[in-house]
Amino acid sequence: MKKIIFYIVFSSIMSSIITIAAYKHTIKEKPLLFPYTSSSNNLPLSNSSLVSSAGLPDFTRVVEKTIDAVVNVKNFSKKYSNQFDPFDFFFGFPDDFGGNKDKKPQKNDIPGLHGSGVIISPDGYVVTNNHVIKEAEKIEITLSDQRTYRAKLIGSDPSTDIALLKINEKNLPFIYFSDSNKVQVGEWVLAIGNPFDLNSTVTAGIISAKNRSLGILRGETQSSIESFFQTDAAVNPGNSGGALVNTNGELIGINTAISSASGNFIGYSFAAPSNLVSKVIQDIKKYGAVQRAYLGVRGMDLSKTEYLKAYNKETHQNIKPQQGFLIGEVFAKSGAEDAGLKKGDIIKSIDGKLIQNIADLSFIVGTKHPGDKVKVNIIRNKYKKSFNITLKDLQGRTKIRTREEITPSELLGATFEDLSKESKKDFGIDYGIRIKEIKTGRLSTIGLEEGDIILSINGNKMKKIGDVDRVLKKYSGDVTIKSIKQNGQVYIAGFEMN
Fold first, then answer.
1. Cα separation of 272 and 255, whole Å?
2. Of these residues, 77, 180, 240, 274, which one is catalytic?
3. Catalytic residue among 161, 232, 301, 467
4. Which helix (H) or strand (E) holds 27?
5. Is 263 a residue whose pLDDT tops 70?
6. Cβ contacts of residue 41 below 8 Å, gap of 6+?
7. Do 369 and 294 form a contact (C-beta atoms < 8 A)?
8. Contact (Cβ atoms closer than 8 angstroms) between residue 159 and residue 224
9. Which helix (H) or strand (E) segment is 255 a member of?
10. Which SS3 state, helix, strand or coil, does residue 356 take?
């Protein structure tokens, strides 16, 4: 009898040791990645758990779980402009908006541009929209308990309208990311933010459509990626950068825009999906810049009947309206050209995911990195074909570059050219370099444009284009740029480089 008891106890102990070892091995093999991703099955809670005793929807548990992780983001800017900006309708207006119409804009700190943000890690990382913090001299974050912090801009991406901030605090409430690919039309969602600077406001609705392309980011960059969730949850100015969560209290999107002529909610709002947001902020944190991959094609949706008619007339074809993406141009030395894609091919799927329109294509490719391989299924002359394509970046590279390999000029997001003698004479200067091209990066964020002349960086005169990398190489900290706008106005702006 004693032997039996001994073997039972021994077996139990060994089983426990094996179980604990297996668990530790699993934890070691699968550490939590940034941003923190939910370990749940990503399915919403059952309808019965969302219904109150009165038979009405009850989201109190979801709100309790998430509301403290949504913050107020305040943009202090020295922007001197009275021009209309379409993004003014997507986040908070200045405090004196609607006041004295005759009051001229003053070139000083304007503390009245408000938006929202979402805490995504306990050590203070916050995601928001790029347009919320654009051209900010200072960014301030206020938590739901009214604690206020100066925020550091880690990086931003105008192509997706996403920015990553950091505050110096620990043990903060945060929201886990969910897999946005599993979101379904008709699913309940909550929008949490600070509309009209009213803190911690929650509205409810459903996902009314997926993969919407609005064209609102094309003015920011030609490589914009738009594949928004459309919801009927009420979103108003100040909600931008706030959370769109599912009924598990997980982040499925970042509220970005509303569809309205007045600037206030009239039925639909749009959010960037969490999978795209996750890719962007991981790149920013790890590499210092977004590692963007491109297929290397330009074309149009086959649902655009007016464009399709024009294409058929020009090419003497008879392509019918359908789901898919029609290639109008294949770029030289791109992954698409290397693999053999041609003008007139119709892309039907990538990696088994159906391509219904350009939003589908840009989203799938937008979540990839240079060097990633994708399987593209097409129709060519009514025949089905498949191609394995290695994606490249805009420079034709197939490798991800480390933070050390990215030059300061690339982080600034611009190319430069030396000033001609005529330009120096026109502006009355004997030094400076001109911004030749603006891309995604710090300069576009602080309001510099193509054609502007950079006079100095951190007090160092810019006499030739190599001076930018010389001054900023291995530099970390505040950067101050003095420039001359194309209208002759002296413009001083800055950002933090890490």
1. 7
2. 240
3. 161
4. helix 2-29
5. no
6. none
7. no
8. yes
9. strand 251-258
10. coil
Which H/E stretch holds residue 410? helix 408-412
Distance from the Cα of residue 179 to its chain's centroid:
16
Q: How many CA atoms lie within 13 A of 223 on its CB side?
A: 18
Residues 6+ apart with CB under 8 A from 336: 295, 296, 297, 327, 330, 389
Indicate the pTM of the whole model. 0.76
Query: Residue 32 corresponds to which tokens in the numbers above?
Result: 């939590």
Kind and range of the H or E run holding 215 = none
Joined tokens for residue 132 = 């919320």
Please check whether residue 119 is in contact with residue 172, taking contact to mean a CB–CB distance below 8 angstroms: yes
| CA count, 13 A, side-chain hemisphere, 59 | 18
Q: By three-state DSSP, how is residue 109 classified?
A: coil
Q: What is the pLDDT of residue 195?
A: 86
Which of the two residues, 42 and 351, has the higher pLDDT score? 351
> Are the CB atoms for 33 and 74 separated by under 8 Å?
no
114 is catalytic: no
Q: Which of 131, 156, 452, 456 is catalytic?
A: 131
Burial profile 416-432: b = 16 or more Cβ within 10 angstroms, e = fewer:
beebeeeeeeeeeeeeb
What are the C-alpha distances in Å from 361 to residues 117, 329, 366, 380, 494? 27, 15, 8, 18, 36
